[in-house]
Amino acid sequence: MKLERIQFVHFRNHESLIFEPDGGVNLIYGLNGSGKTSVLEGVHYCALTKGFVNAHDNECLSSGKPFFLLKGVFADSYGKKTEVNVTYSPQEGKQLTVNGQSSSSFSSHVGSVPCITFSPADIAIINGSPAERRRFLDNAICQTDRGYLDALLQYRRILQQRNSLFLRSSGSGPDPEMMDILADQMALPAARVTARRVQFVREILPFLRQYLGVVSGGEYPSIEYRSSFLPPGFAGSPDQLAVHFRNRIGQKRHEEIARSQTSAGPHRDDVVFYLHEREIKKYASQGQKRSFLIALKLALYRYFTVKSDEEPICLFDDLFSELDSQRIDSLLHLLVDSGQIIITATEQRTAPAVNTMSIQGMA
């Protein structure tokens, strides 16, 4: 997948801007606050209907303007074009149009324009809470597996219903029969989500090892998925795993009532990253963590390409920060064969097969 053209109107500090990148590596450079990241964010909106820096839609609206508009034109590997329009106004909210057809479901668009992002804030995937790592898994898998997205949405909906039982219950506690009914309904989507996450971890690890070997000079990573109900070494079907989920929920009945929340399921799981069998979060240096994160995002590129037979667009914000010149050169050499990539940097950097442009010159 490649971005051919994107138009910005009243989006952050871009009053009016048209960006037409090359099909390979594109480097946008300029001072901090000049709008480089906003270009990436606009592309991300067209791909996944939201910004990648977790900003609210109204924060992306230029000051004093009534709306923002993003118009992106993408082409897949067969030349088929997809035109995506995203508009937002405080009165009407966010609206999505794909190839001229209005879409009421943002989730149905996920995966149509595969997209991978990197930003300094992504260090939270390593240093942050388990929720950050679960979000990483969900964002990656949802773009390549529609069934996973459906199971995840179903699980979250039933989880919300079950947790609301605790909030509405009186001093006698929630209705045990209703707790069991909802636990039964949650079991299969919980099993499908967990099984797919475990499969993802297993499949991406070889790519991670390959890229980290280049980026960091030979460090050896591993990944562990820690489930709140998955038995050690389990290799059965989702139907069989659903039985384990239901049993685990039954074992935690008293704990759930005491804590007023569902105590087992994918929403309680975590991923642990290791370098040389030592947990990265606890023992790795900042440089090691950053190199690991870059390699992880490049591994996603390979994973997406294998799974969907379509190269994702890579949006890398401030990619070269904290890297020395030798490592930057090695990384650029690696990126040349990685589809369409849009990178932001504070300084101009020239390299073979890299399209370099100033953000000031684009405005």
Determine Rg (CA atoms, Å): 22 Å
Count the DSSP helices. Answer: 11
The fourth-level CATH homologous superfamily of the domain at 1-114 and 311-363 is: P-loop containing nucleotide triphosphate hydrolases
The order of strands across the largest sheet is 2-1-4-5-6-7
CATH topology of the domain at 1-114 and 311-363: Rossmann fold
Return the structural class: alpha/beta
Strand fraction band? Answer: 15-25%
Oligomer: single chain
Reading the helices and strands in chain order gives: EEEHEEEEEHHHHEHHEEHHEHEEH
What is the terminal separation in angstroms? 25 Å
Point out poorly predicted stretches: none
Helix content: 40-55%
Shape: globular
Sum this structure up briefly.
With 363 residues, the chain is an alpha/beta fold.
Identify the notable features of this structure and list them briefly.
single chain; 363 residues; alpha/beta; 5-stranded parallel sheet; 14 strands; globular
SSE blueprint and pairings:
Layout: E1 2-11, E2 14-19, E3 25-29, H1 36-48, E4 68-75, E5 81-89, E6 93-98, E7 101-103, E8 115-118, H2 124-127, H3 130-142, H4 146-168, H5 176-216, E9 221-226, H6 238-251, H7 253-259, E10 270-275, E11 278-279, H8 280-283, H9 286-308, E12 313-316, H10 325-335, E13 341-345, E14 354-358, H11 359-362
Parallel strand pairs: 3-13, 3-14, 8-12, 12-13
Antiparallel strand pairs: 1-2, 1-4, 4-5, 5-6, 6-7, 9-10, 10-11
Helix pairs in contact: 4-5, 5-6, 5-9
Descriptive overview:
The structure is a single chain. The protein has eleven helices and 14 strands. It has a domain of 167 residues: P-loop containing nucleotide triphosphate hydrolases (Rossmann fold), CATH 3.40.50. A hairpin with a 5-residue loop joins strand 4 and strand 5. Helix 4 packs across helix 5 and helix 5 packs across helix 9. With 363 residues, the protein is of the alpha/beta class. The two termini are 25 Å apart. It is globular, with a radius of gyration of 22 Å.
